[in-house]
Amino acid sequence: MTNGHNRRRFLQLTGTGAVASLAGCTDLGLLSDDEADERLTAIVEPDQAAVEALYDDLESGEIDEMEFQQRAQELQEETIAEFEAYADDEDIQIDESTTEGAGLYLIDGPDEAILSALRSGPVTVLYGSDAYDLILEQQAQQQQQQEQPELDEDDLEEQLEDELEDDGSTEEDTDDESDAEDDE
Hints:
Layout (H helix, E strand, L loop, with lengths): L1 H22 L16 E5 L3 H13 L4 H25 L3 E6 L4 E6 L2 H10 L2 E6 L1 H18 L5 H31 L1
Antiparallel strand pairs: 1-3, 1-4, 2-3
């Protein structure tokens, strides 16, 4: 049992540490030594070569934007189905998941199976279990930002002019009051 725990800890440290440092996530506090939860956060994404081939087809005009989005969605769905079938076959337990955007999973299971999915399968990144909720929060924040309407330059300019006029009228009122006091 100790041997399995050491391999799991090694996997967490190498996978989380290396990827987190590359991604600039070392300040997320995911590398705590007292981490009792041995589950991992796995991100499942399509093969980069297939995605790049899609981009090339889009740029060369072979496909339009709508077809590109449709094919990219199909690639993602195939990758998610592949991972879920692999997880089922290899006794990898999926505790939580969301498949919006990239497939995000909170998993636990045999170390060898998880490493194999990382090396040659659809899993592109492994983090500690704490990353799952953090990534969900970041996705929610990004979605909120995208849903906010963007101001065009004319609207922004009008808004700034209105604010400046409001500030100017306040100063004029103050100047008029101080002039009246000076007259007395």
